[in-house]
TrEMBL record:
Stated name of the protein: Probable ATP-dependent RNA helicase DDX5
GO cellular component: cytoplasm; nucleolus; spliceosomal complex
Pfam families: DEAD, Helicase_C, P68HR
All residue ranges annotated as the Helicase ATP-binding domain in the record: 115-290
Domain DEAD-box RNA helicase Q: from-to ranges: 84-112
Chief location of this protein within or outside the cell: cytoplasm
Residue segments, region Disordered: 1-35, 507-531
Species assigned in the record: Anas zonorhyncha (Eastern spot-billed duck)
Length: 640
């Protein structure tokens, strides 16, 4: 590969130097906005759609009935009728062969209406929930578009450019594109940060018709002259709302400035906020707007949403009880979403010490480790994935059955994208959410999402709105409403922290307290130190972890609270967790050490006779025994 240096790059564009990955300056500052003269540009064709006779015969009433049944809303002029069967799209024979191999029965709603629009050469905006089949909605028309263009020549850039917000989404789009492009003898590549640049540059220099890219890495290559967008006539912005959330708007505008203005542009989004609308107005011309589902913010109706109103200190206990139930299911693949990288590492470490087959993924992991963790999760070797929002969009694993929002996200849009990791395509799934006083600002939006999806609403959420509207102190109202048995006197209430009407802690002078400021730092700086006053205190805690008593869920009192007693298993260790007695809970008959309960096998050797440290129904394990757990490196501890 060309390492840069002096002289004019063979691909044109800007001059300059090696791909050193500059650390300063604005991304794309070397790229200048091109002044296009449409009369001098080579002509190209973008309307290839011919209505199938079955579509022509379809009446207006039949079209409206189909759109109504699929919750399809269309805006714009000259929108063609939807197709109902694959053969009505008139795709090439080799494309149809791949569709048949994948055993698709009929197009999804976004495909049925989106394919005729895209094949007609029109600009379009597609707003649809995750898992609705939007990737094929733009990839198959892209293949038809490319087949009608002149062949690439040496030095030409891609004809179809797909911009995606994350590496994971870009890789998944590439997997789909590779299967169909091979059948059509086209070449595709995926370029993203965190991976070596050399192989990506070689793919671009050899010529590819389809390029799937994240904005940052593409701008690096454009500035270094390693590719160009002179031949690009089909542009796709996938998950445009997410790219704006991540601050990619300046990069997107720089990239679009390098593409001829008479291109065909398709924008896809799960939500339709005003920022995305403005982007559509700037980049698209006389576009058709297709909306699948409710016009307002909506979640997948195939997902059962369960909201648990609780305090932060209760989350760990509730998570463990949930995982006990989930792991007894045959389909138990679960994603647990947390807010910060620090919490992701801490929760992963804790769960693995307790024997749970969990792995963690967040933005600070290397690309190699992220790929490996996702591969282990997809193949079921580690059915529990603990993730930050880096995986909340674009993570396409077909058989995820459960999503747990350990930390509630910052917006309802993120909530919808998180729970959208389950119930892909037409499948069903379950989403559990822990909602705490710190999330009170989101309560109205959450209730709106639940109502739109016809979900049961926890009465405690409604009580929160009432208390908030009545002007009560949020923290005190919360405790009175949901924990009356713990409120014994007005003295207790006076000891509670004061909060403003938005749910933020206030000091005596009305300012945000240091705790609130610490929470804000935790959100943006990968978390706090977990309550340890010094590194030595944390180190001592880690060393004595096996000797610490753990809460047991064996006996349940009449009022529903779990007591601290459990089975003794013939040993003096009351709850089966203290020191060497920890093997009573997870590795009966092997007192070699408390930390080995999850590394050699999944849940224990005498699993048929043990209750896993819990006085409840035993898991339904196959007769052959659980597969041994892979050796996964523990996340590094953090220094002061």
């Amino acid at each position: 590969a060309d390492g840069g240096g002096s002289g004019t790059p063979r691909f044109g564009g800007s001059r300059g130097g090696p791909l050193s990955g500059k650390k300063f300056g604005n991304p794309g500052e070397k790229l200048t906005k091109k002044k296009w003269n449409l009369d001098e540009l080579p002509k190209f064709e973008k309307n290839f759609y011919q209505e199938h006779p079955d579509v022509v015969r379809r009446t207006v009433q039949e079209v409206e009935q189909y759109r109504s049944s699929k919750e399809v809303t269309v805006r714009g002029h000259n929108c063609p009728k939807p197709i109902i069967n694959f053969y009505e799209a008139n795709f090439p024979a080799n494309v149809m062969e791949v569709i048949q191999r994948q055993n698709f029965t009929e197009p999804t709603a976004i495909q049925a209406q989106g394919w005729p629009v895209a094949l007609s050469g029109l600009d379009m905006v597609g707003v649809a929930q995750t898992g609705s089949g939007k990737t094929l909605s733009y990839l198959l028309p892209a293949i038809v578009h490319i087949n009608h263009q002149p062949f690439l020549e040496r030095g030409d850039g891609p004809i179809c450019l797909v911009l995606a917000p994350t590496r994971e989404l870009a890789q998944q789009v590439q997997q789909v594109a590779a299967e169909y492009s091979r059948a059509c003898r086209l070449k595709s590549t995926c370029i993203y940060g965190g991976a070596p640049k050399g192989p990506q540059i070689r793919d671009l220099e050899r010529g590819v018709e389809i390029c799937i890219a994240t904005p940052g890495r593409l701008i690096d290559f454009l500035e270094a002259g390693k590719t160009n967008l002179r031949r690009c006539t089909y542009l796709v912005l996938d998950e445009a709302d997410r790219m704006l959330d991540m601050g990619f708007e300046p990069q997107i505008r720089k990239i679009v400035d390098q593409i001829r203005p008479d291109r065909q542009t398709l924008m896809w989004s799960a939500t339709w906020p005003k920022e995305v609308r403005q982007l559509a107005e700037d980049f698209l011309k006389e576009y058709v707007h297709i909306n699948i589902g409710a016009l307002e913010l909506s979640a997948n109706h195939n997902i059962l949403q369960i909201v648990d109103v609780c305090h932060d200190v209760e989350k760990d206990d509730k998570l463990i009880r949930l995982m006990e139930e989930i792991m007894s299911e045959k389909e138990n693949k679960t994603i647990v979403f947390v807010e910060t990288k620090r919490r992701c590492d801490d929760l992963t470490r804790k769960m693995r010490r307790d024997g749970w087959p969990a792995m963690g993924i967040h933005g600070d992991k290397s690309q190699q480790e992220r790929d490996w963790v996702l591969n282990e999760f997809k193949h079921g070797k580690a059915p529990i994935l603990i993730a930050t929002d880096v995986a909340s969009r674009g993570l396409d694993v077909e058989d995820v059955k459960f999503v747990i929002n350990y930390d509630y996200p910052n917006s309802s849009e993120d909530y919808i994208h998180r729970i959208g990791r389950t119930a892909r395509s037409t499948k069903t799934g379950t989403a559990y959410t822990f909602f705490t006083p710190n999330n009170i600002k989101q309560v109205n939006d959450l209730i709106s999402v639940l109502r739109e999806a016809n979900q049961a609403i926890n009465p405690k959420l409604l009580q929160l709105i009432e208390d908030r509207g009545s002007g009560k102190c949020c923290c005190q109202a919360w405790c009175i409403a949901f924990f009356p048995e713990q409120i014994g006197s007005s003295i207790y209430l006076s000891s509670l922290p004061k909060m403003d009407m938005e749910g933020s802690l206030l000091g005596s002078s009305g300012d945000l307290t240091s705790r609130s400021r610490g929470d804000r730092r935790d959100r943006y700086s990968a978390g706090k130190r977990g309550g340890f006053s010094s590194f030595r205190e944390r180190e001592n805690f880690e060393r004595t972890y096996g000797a610490l008593g753990k809460r047991d869920f064996g006996a349940k009192a009449q009022n529903g609270a779990y007591t601290a007693q459990s089975f003794s298993n013939g040993t003096p260790f009351g709850n089966g967790f203290a020191a060497a007695g920890m093997q009573a809970g997870f590795r009966a008959g092997n007192p070699a050490g408390a930390y080995q309960n999850g590394y050699d096998q999944q849940y224990g050797s005498n699993i048929a006779n043990m209750h896993n440290g819990m006085n409840q129904q035993q898991y339904a394990y196959p007769a052959t025994g659980a597969a041994p757990m892979i050796g996964y490196p523990m996340p590094a501890s953090y220094s002061q």
